[in-house]
Amino acid sequence: MAQVLVRQLNEKVVERLKKRAKEHGRSLQSEVKTILEEAVPDYEGAWLRIEAFRKGLRKSGRKFSDSAGLIREDRDR
Question: Where along the chain do its domains lie?
Fold first, then answer.
């Protein structure tokens, strides 16, 4: 697993991070890791899960209508 070193981080930022970590019941390292993971979502993985879900819907044999017409009709009211 990779490591990241952040140099010259403002001490006030570190204190706020420590406070936030304590509020969440985590270590400083765990809190920073969580923040970074949430800041850079795994879009590729999300699209793969979405496509797998769509395949499952297609395999189910159910017919799904195109909702664009219904949306347009509702919007025009």
Answer: 11-60
